Amino acid sequence: MKVSVIIPAAGLGTRMGRSAPEKEGISRKQFMLLNGSPILIHTIRKFVSCPSVTEIVVAIRSDDLAWATELFKAQGLAQNVRTVEGGESRQQSVENALAAIVGDIDLVAVHDAVRPFVERDTIERVIHEASETGAAIVGIVPVDTVKQVHRTKVRATLPRERLILTQTPQVFRLDLLRQAFEKAREDLFIGTDESSLVERLERVEVSVVLGTDRNIKITKPSDMDLARLYLMLESSALEIPR
Questions:
Q1: CA angle, corner 232, sides to 75 and 215, nearest 5?
Q2: Domain containing residue 77
Q3: Secondary structure of 146-169 in the HEC alphabet?
Q4: Burial of 79: CB neighbours in 10 Å, binned 0-12, 13-18, 19+
Q5: At 161, which CATH number?
Q6: 242 within some domain
Q7: What is the largest CA-CA distance in the chain?
Q8: What is the per-residue pLDDT across 94-122, written as a single tens digit (0 to 9) for each?
């Protein structure tokens, strides 16, 4: 079984509200430094360490391609990672990366560039599940009560046992994911994740693999404090309550 990992990393990261320190003029959260290395590098290293992963395709904005390629070489990742030009949206970036996948690849995993704390066990479990079912995502059960609202008025309380908060990786058979993107393009449909595109095909049921609270998506400045804590815990091989 061969698995390609797509990491869309062409986003502008506007919610961070500040520039990445290692490349002048860039305000992309995926390039912000975490313990001396860009967040994207921490994320890539998680997949490089997985035996199931065959290759990693990173979708980068055109004006960052040369710089990112040199960065991967300097980090010793060039053998495992290649780049493609990203699009104006996440969906376009993933579609560009899909078009660049060749050969006898069986599964494609899509992972957020700014989720550097995904555990290798989680990656392996969701890949295994997708190899059995064709489609699998990572998710966690919400701990807060979830309300459905209209403007500022509550309309319903949703049962938590029937809800998940989705994370990445999201893993699919290559042919299935390509069909999902083709259908979305035909219908001018924009999804918030890859699973939403696959669900529209109504060809397979998407399985859920339980993730962890540590698999955070770094999207705002306050997340960096938590990221530094998690990185310190990883470095010292300590466990935190889940």
A1: 80
A2: 3-235
A3: EEEEECCEEEEEECHHHCCEEEEE
A4: exposed
A5: 3.90.550.10
A6: no
A7: 53
A8: 999 999 999 999 999 999 999 999 999 99
Rounded distance between C-alpha atoms, residue 127 and residue 121, angstroms? 10
Handedness of CA 44, 139, 165, 182 (dihedral sign): positive
Q: Is residue 53 in a domain?
A: yes
Instruction: Quote the tokens at residue 217.
Output: 């998506």
Query: Token pair for residue 158?
Result: 């949703």
According to DSSP H, which parts of the chain are helical? 39-48, 65-74, 90-100, 120-133, 174-187, 194-201, 221-235
CB 101 within 8 A of CB 54: no
189 three-class SS:
coil
What are the Cα distances from residue 235, in Å, to 35, 103, 225, 230, 231? 11, 36, 16, 9, 6
Domain assignment present for residue 240? The answer is no
Coil vs helix vs strand at 108: strand
Residue 108: which of 158, 187, 144, 55 has the closest Cα?
A: 55
Domain membership of residue 241 (yes or no) is no
Tens of pLDDT along 22-73? 444 344 689 999 989 999 999 999 999 999 999 999 999 999 999 999 999 9
- Overall number of domains in the chain: 1
Class of residue 103 by CB neighbours under 10 A (exposed 0-12, middle 13-18, buried 19+): exposed
Q: Name residue 84's amino acid.
A: V
Q: Give the pLDDT confidence of 144-176 residue by residue, as tens digits.
A: 999 999 999 999 999 998 999 999 999 999 999
Structure-token pair, residue 14: 């506007």
Banded model confidence at residue 12, pLDDT cuts 50, 70, 90? low
